[in-house]
Amino acid sequence: MSEATTPAPGPDEEIVDRSSPGIGRSSAVMAAGTLFSRILGFARNSLTAYVVGLTIIAADAWNAANTLPNIFHLLIAGGVLNAVIVPQITRAMRDPDGGRTYINRLLTLSGVALAVVTLVLTLAAPLLVSLVVSSSWPAEARTLATAFAVLCLPQVFFYGLYTLLGQVLTAHHRFGAFMWAPALANVVAIGGLLWFVLADRPLQGPVSSWDPTMIAVLGGSATLSIALQAFALIPALRSTGLRYRPVWGLRGSGLGGASRMAMWAFAAVVIGQLAYLVNSRVLTGALHAAADQGVEGAGLTAYANAFLLFMLPHGIITVSLVTALFTRISHAVHDDDTRAVTSDLRQGLTVPGVLLVPGTAAIILLAPYLLAAVLPGISRAQTDASVGVLVAMMLGLVPYGWFFLVQRTYYAYEDGRTPFVLQLVVTGIALTFTVIGSVGPPVHTATWVGLGQTVSNLVAALIGLWLLRRRIGRLGLSEVVRTFVRLGIATAVATLVGWLLMRGLLTVLDGGTWLGAFVLTSVVGLVVLALSLGLAAQLRVREVTELLAPLTRRLGRG
Q1: Among candidate residues 11, 10, 33, 1, the one with its CA nearest the CA of residue 323
Q2: pTM for the full model?
Q3: What percent of the chain has pLDDT over 70?
Q4: What are the DSSP calls for 16-27, one per residue?
């Protein structure tokens, strides 16, 4: 692949237009689907915490088992296929048959491989559970986690199928179904959780309270939800004109380059998931140690809840934009249009920050009340134990998005080696923080794990941008820096106002109740966000001005 060094456009030059749907429209479709799905996800997550608890071992047994499919989804499908499929399909779509043979061959071979791997993993459930939970756990807790894992591991196949079909749709600029299908999955999972409430089953009980029916309903509904999420993409795929016909064999398929890319991507994900296994064992051990000391601690479930909150703005804002940009960047790379690549890269670095910077400040300011608001039915002592890890992770929200974009840019250049090296950096730094947390008080362990995620992604993103500049020339990052400085100033002022407002509201609201926490979070959060955007617009942050343009035009006409 060429490494041309065409000068990047200046900050005032227009973004190069490509023959694809508008980024704004594509991002809006994805953001809407992601937002709706995330809202349902919050409902599912709150209901899950209500059913299984937050800081008890039974809750960690469920989360450890239900996380296993996600680990292997990332290993087998998520990281590899997300990195490889879009650039390869955009190339294959230039073939005389529009890439149909390539896509059918990809679906055939990948589908068979996913089925075989899923079967092996399900049979190995007891071994896998022993890798993710602490060795200090009692035997009955490990048995419960294993039973959940047997029911959840078939999700690996359906996650993989969803990723395959979704990336084919993405390459065809069909984003809607891919982003809306998870909403269906959440509806099904919520239905399974409601059974516990309607059937008057024990809630937030110890490990011994879980009978075979309860285990089957919770694990089975979770797997069914992922299966329906995958099958929901089939009608959208048919609308592209693609008709699936099995195509076998690798010779002459053009998949050789994809397999080399996939190996690098696979290696990077392996490194990341090995780090997760260490984190999982440390967090489950910390929860058990905190329980022995008679204090509330943040374990794997608390970390997972904080991560879900962390992923809400990342999924709605950053992923929606970068997914659309990834397709455009891939086309630009194939056209040897470095100017377009750098233009889209700057857009991906700055546009999410318009909402993520003030959003980060608001969440950190309101962390105790936000957790209490989104986890009704959970005691305040349990939610307060999760505040540290939530704040630590939220500090890295913007860097996490930067690293996500940098990875995708290298994949567009069909370079899997550099993201692998960057993943080594992320893992090394993150595990250093995890080790520090593991030898300290167990109530602070999860906070150290969260800090490790923040620092590691920031360092890797900066290194990745530096290496990318050496490869393709100027990236125009000075304008990115100026944008974030102005956003930071506006957000700092707005956060101070928000803190004063919060102190005032606490004189008339009881922040210890769910209603008080909800009102406080909603009012102060909206004030911080709105004031940040208003001040940023006054500071001439172009991205904010463009975001607010429809509103200001309406007000002007009024």
Answers
A1: 33
A2: 0.69
A3: 81
A4: PP-SS--HHHHH
